[in-house]
């Protein structure tokens, strides 16, 4: 299949957005339930949830606890700032230029995870590792990989191939979306010892979720960089479509 094919969740989001625009789902009403959409499109709940997230990003709908998803606008906001991840392969640059040492690798249940993991898989691999340049440690990482992709999880540390590439190579699941949050943090004592910095010193926390074509989150990462060892740059474009 061509790599340019839209993932299923994006196709569903486009169709529902079109239906909203035509007035099939008027503003103020609820969309069909997740179960109804799963049956209508014959897809998993992961795919439906990713489609709903895409519609939320367009500010067409909003979730309501215990009720469902309500239509809040008939068309997407006409001018919005978009962080475009056209350079997903660039996420592998750090991997290619550094060396990784796995400190811990274990299979755990989702309920035992320290980080919030998406519903869908009860079993995950937890990997803790440190990436280093020739002169000093660069980043401490905590990585969760869906246990359904065990071959990829077990190869981490054996090469510098990014995990999402391993998942694609062994399972054919292509990465289509990366969700990222960046925040300042005080480096915890155990992590500070690994990074050879003072406990409580400032650091940069980068949290990511990797979403495949199926709409499933297959990898969740938390990375801690000491201040001065990492710079994150992005470019924002004003999208005037809509």
- Largest sheet composition: 6 strands, antiparallel
Mean pLDDT metric: 85
Give the uncertain stretches in residue-range form. Answer: 78-87
CA radius of gyration: 20 Å
Stated plainly, the CATH topology of the largest domain is called Chorismate lyase
Strand content: 25-35%
- How are the strands of the largest sheet arranged? 4-5-6-9-8-7
Tally of strands? 10
Structural class: alpha+beta
State the shape. elongated
How many structurally independent domains?
2
Helix content: 25-40%
Report, as a whole number of angstroms, the end-to-end distance: 29 Å
Q: In CATH, what is the class of the largest domain?
A: Alpha Beta
General description of the model:
This protein is α+β, with helices and mostly antiparallel strands and 242 residues long. Helix content is 26%, strand content 33%. The protein is built from seven helices and ten strands. It has helices at residues 8-21, 34-41, 45-57, 93-97, 150-155, 163-171, 189-195; strands at 61-64, 68-71, 80-83, 99-109, 123-132, 137-146, 175-186, 202-212, 217-226, 236-239. The strands form three sheets. A six-stranded antiparallel beta sheet has the order 4-5-6-9-8-7. A two-stranded antiparallel sheet has the order 1-2. The longest helix has 14 residues, at 8-21.
Keywords:
6-stranded antiparallel β-sheet, single chain, 242 residues, elongated, 33% strand, alpha+beta, Arc Repressor Mutant, subunit A
Helices and strands in order, then pairings?
Layout: H1 8-21, H2 34-41, H3 45-57, E1 61-64, E2 68-71, E3 80-83, H4 93-97, E4 99-109, E5 123-132, E6 137-146, H5 150-155, H6 163-171, E7 175-186, H7 189-195, E8 202-212, E9 217-226, E10 236-239
Helix pairs in contact: 1-3, 2-3
């Amino acid at each position: 299949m061509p790599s340019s094919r839209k993932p299923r969740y994006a196709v569903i989001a486009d169709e529902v957005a079109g239906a909203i625009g035509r007035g099939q789902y008027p503003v103020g009403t609820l969309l069909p339930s997740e179960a109804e959409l799963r049956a209508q499109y014959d897809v998993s709940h992961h795919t439906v949830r990713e489609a709903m997230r895409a519609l939320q990003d367009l500010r067409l709908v909003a979730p309501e606890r215990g009720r469902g998803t309500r239509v809040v606008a008939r068309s997407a906001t006409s001018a919005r700032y978009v962080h475009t991840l056209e350079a997903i392969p660039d996420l592998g640059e750090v991997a290619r230029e550094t060396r990784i040492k796995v400190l811990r690798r274990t299979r755990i249940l989702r309920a035992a995870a320290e980080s919030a993991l998406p519903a869908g898989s009860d079993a995950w691999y937890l990997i803790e590792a440190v990436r280093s340049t020739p002169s000093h440690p660069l980043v401490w990482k905590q990585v969760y990989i869906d246990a359904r992709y065990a071959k990829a999880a077990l190869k981490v540390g054996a090469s510098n191939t990014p995990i999402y590439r391993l998942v694609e190579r062994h399972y054919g699941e292509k990465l289509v979306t990366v969700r990222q949050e960046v925040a300042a943090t005080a480096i915890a004592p155990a992590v500070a010892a690994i990074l050879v910095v003072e406990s409580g010193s400032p650091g940069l926390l980068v949290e990511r979720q990797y979403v495949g074509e199926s709409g499933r989150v297959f990898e969740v990462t938390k990375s801690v960089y000491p201040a001065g060892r990492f710079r994150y740059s992005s470019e924002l474009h004003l999208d005037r479509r809509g």
